[in-house]
Amino acid sequence: MEKTIQANLVSVVVPVYNEEGSLRELHLKISEAFDKTDYTHEIIFVDDGSRDGSYDIEQELAKEHSNVSVIRFHANHGKAAALNDGFAAAKGEYVATIDADLQDDPEAIPQMVELTKKEKYDLVSGWKQNRQDRFIKKHTSKIFNFATRIMTGIPLHDMNNGLKVYKSEVVKTISIYGEMHRFIPVLAKMNGFKSGEMKVRHFPRKYGKTKYGVSRFYKGFLDLLTVLFTSKFLRRPMHFFGLWGIIFLGIGTIAEIYLLVLKFAFGEPFQKHIALMMLGVLLIVFGMQFFSLGLISEMIAFHQKSKRQ
User: Fold this and answer.
1) Radius of gyration of the chain from Cα atoms?
2) CA 30, CA 106: separation in Å to the nearest integer?
3) pLDDT digits (tens, 9 = 90+) for 205-217
4) What span, in angstroms and rounded, lies between the C-alpha atoms of 30 and 309?
5) 130 and 263 share a domain?
6) Alpha helices, DSSP H only, in the chain?
7) Is it the case that residue 254 has pLDDT exceeding 90?
8) Alpha carbon separation from 63 to 56, 68, 87 (Å, rounded)
9) Measured in whole angstroms, how far is the alpha carbon of residue 97 from the centre of its chain?
10) Has residue 1 been placed in a domain?
């Protein structure tokens, strides 16, 4: 049963993992930001298997304030899963996301909602100014964002910023998993939504420890490749597999024809060029396999399309 979307309500989804020191202050800052506006708001804490006292504090806040609710995972499933469940529970006309570490500015949320209305954006992403992160995190993030802009064509400077505002139809349309929360603007673009950005303040971490690790960099790159593939070839996978099939088949066939010419025109034995012969056969097999994958993928895509109609 679909939830009724409430006009003028902003749902603030907060993924939480071991952030007990910041939760009460974050709640206060979010509330103060909306006290200055005509918007009503709800706060949805999604506890992603915290092992400190975060869940207890979230429960206390929910008892003290009627507009606070808590979703709890008993194990750590990752930020994408937390956001997905938070999006499903959100009742607001607009949905905001903000990390629980107090590094982002809650006062920016109502301003981002206004920018969404003014510029007719479907989502607005924060763009951190004067980042207060460690050197490695700061500069790997710059590299990651630059590569993402080039490869996706979406001109956002801070794609992975946890501070975002969406129209409700955006978060109700997309589904995220794994580490795909980094690429929500890309997934939104695939569904015809328009993205914008707004400069926001950034603060040093006050409590707890950063969840950033080196693994996030290579995982992010692999997820970027996944998003690029699905965004460009999901509906016509043969365009991808068929292209590589043609390339492999073409090179393999040319190699074998070249060997036949050497054999019958110049009398050179195949054994003299055994490596080239094996490479040509291998490329032809690869080409046929890619064509087969393309045909199977097309059949799956056609079947899924038929089910939706």
Assistant:
1) 25
2) 5
3) 887 776 555 556 6
4) 43
5) no
6) 23-35, 54-64, 79-89, 108-119, 135-152, 168-173, 184-190, 215-233, 238-266, 274-308
7) yes
8) 11, 8, 22
9) 13
10) no
